[in-house]
Amino acid sequence: MTKTKGIARRLTRRDVMKSAAAAAVLLPMPALAQGAAGRVVVIGGGFAGASCARALKALDARINVTLVEASRTFTACPFSNLVIAGMRELTAQQFGYDKVAASGVTMAFSSASGVDPQAKSVTLADGNRLAYDRLVLAPGIDIRWDGLPGYDEAAANVMPHAWKAGEQTTLLRRQLESMEDGGLVVISAPANPFRCPPGPYERASLMAYYLKTKKPKSKLIVLDAKDAFSKQRLFQNAWKELYPNLEWVSLSSGGKVTSVEPSSKTVVTDFSRHQAAVANIIPPQKAARVADLAQVADRSGWCPVDAMTFESKQQPNIHVIGDAAIMGAMPKSAFSANAQAKVCAAAVAKLLAGEKPVEPRLINTCYSVLAPDYGITVAGAYRPKDGVLVDAEGGGVSPIDAPASTRAAEARYADGWFNTITAEVFG
Ligand SMILES: Cc1cc2nc3c(=O)[nH]c(=O)nc-3n(C[C@H](O)[C@H](O)[C@H](O)COP(=O)(O)OP(=O)(O)OC[C@H]3O[C@@H](n4cnc5c(N)ncnc54)[C@H](O)[C@@H]3O)c2cc1C
Predict the structure, then answer these.
(1) How far is the CA of 323 from the centre of ligand 1 (A)?
(2) Ligand 1 centre from 124 Cα, in Å?
């Protein structure tokens, strides 16, 4: 599948390089020539931010790009479900920023603690201040700690969310490993929108795989705040075939979790109480806090943006990409974040040069691994319409009746996708 290689709209890396070369030769940058423009600060060095910072430098090496990132090591969420199931180590998820810095991006390892949209400056926790002409926010998500009664930061140490990869991932894995055979595992899946729509179901599959191979008397229940989810038929067909001990309870069947009781690991719905041996609570989410500081998040907690440039609809000169943004039909994924980053970089470079951004086309592909030799995919194409991203022609899901060889091949493609995107962003 060539999808493993394609990342953003029609713009490939080679195109970026080509247009960067052309721009350098043919287009004097008026704003840069005045010496006033050309400073871009990117906050968040994940799939969106690191991709955007590098793409900006590739487009025009003269743009002064600073990437602000709170951590020196990035821990990737994609494939972290395999870590929970004991099929992969957390170190395989971790990446540094040496290559990002080597590509000409200035790294600022600190947390952005303030944004002044009027003064066009960012304050860092280490006391430094950075002035910008354009700011790109790519901070990912925060958990809504007020979104589920009983679930706060202390509860997450007992009932992990593991929706930000790292310690939480390891904690959930350890809990599964130390659970007795015959225990009940509960996953609570949130309502839309949230990071990685197929993620809870991939996780359920891989935790069920772990239980089937290591603790076969155990049972897994997914309590869901939705009636429908990404790749649903594919997941449910696979569960019937592979994991009879996995039960999915929809919203209409009373699946919505209304509160949790961490002291007894009890998960409560309107109709039932489930005392779990392991409870994985995936709570409601919102754009990470710096979006509030920059005044770009709306009442939904997410950031509305213009679909052509990803410039905030609330603050000029600030762009928001990745999970933090409202992207219409485009799901919150690492693939999407990387695609949006390239479109945003191209738009920012044009705007700095006093030119008009071009209308983008974007694609997204999400692989889910349900067992070591069982993968499925959803792919979509998107274009701007009336200020938001809508579905464009193309896209689809893996065939419903595919042979085992196709499922095995898609699991391999998933591996190829992870290696390709992380090499492109961090390598
Ligand atoms: C279990 C799971 C499985 C997934 N599987 C897939 C998959 O198979 N395929 C796929 O495409 N996607 C997958 N995703 C989704 C993917 O991880 C996210 O969509 C992606 O990480 C979004 O990228 P981002 O750059 O917006 O945010 P992130 O990757 O989270 O990066 C945000 C960065 O911003 C930094 N930051 C935040 N605030 C500040 C601040 N104030 N100052 C400095 N730095 C800051 C953080 O430290 C972080 O490094 C999965 C997610 C989960 C949870």
Answers:
(1) 7
(2) 20
Point out the ligand 1 atom lying closest to the alpha carbon of residue 51. Answer: 25
Q: What is the mean pLDDT of residues 215-224?
A: 98
Q: Ligand 1 mean position to 87 CA, how many Å?
A: 21
- Take residue 400 and report the two structure tokens written for it: 């419903």
Residues of the chain with CATH 3.50.50.60: 35-140+288-358, 155-284
The CATH number fitting domain 155-284, selected from 3.50.50.60, 3.90.1150.10, 3.90.950.10, 3.30.70.260:
3.50.50.60
The three-point CA angle 309-60-308 to 5° equals 10
Cα dihedral across residues 287, 168, 424, 114: positive or negative: positive
Share of the chain above pLDDT 90, in %: 91
Q: CA-to-CA distance for 46 and 290, rounded, in angstroms?
A: 14
Cα-based distances in Å from 187 to 5, 37, 172: 32, 49, 11
CB 156 within 8 A of CB 265: no
- What does the buried/exposed string (b/e) look like for 139-167 if buried means 16 or more CB atoms within 10 Å of the residue's CB? bbbbbeeeebebbeeebbebbbbbbbbbe
For 35-140+288-358, CATH number? 3.50.50.60
Token output for 210 = 């772990």
Report the percent of the chain where pLDDT is more than 70.
91
Total-model pTM: 0.92
Which of 171, 302, 323 for a ligand 1 pocket mutation test, highest count of atoms within 8 Å of Cβ?
323
Ligand 1, pocket residues at CB < 6 Å: 43-49, 68-71, 74, 77-78, 80-81, 111-112, 138-140, 163, 195-196, 199, 203, 288, 290, 322-323, 332-335, 337, 366-367
**Contact in structure between 49 and 42 (CB atoms under 8 Å):** yes
pLDDT (mean) for 65-83:
98
> Which tokens belong to 59?
């487009």
The whole-number pLDDT of residue 76 equals: 98
Residues 338-364 have a mean pLDDT of: 97
- Closest ligand 1 atom to residue 113 Cα is 41
* Contact (Cβ atoms closer than 8 angstroms) between residue 322 and residue 138: yes
Give the other-Cβ count within 10 Å of 28's Cβ: 9
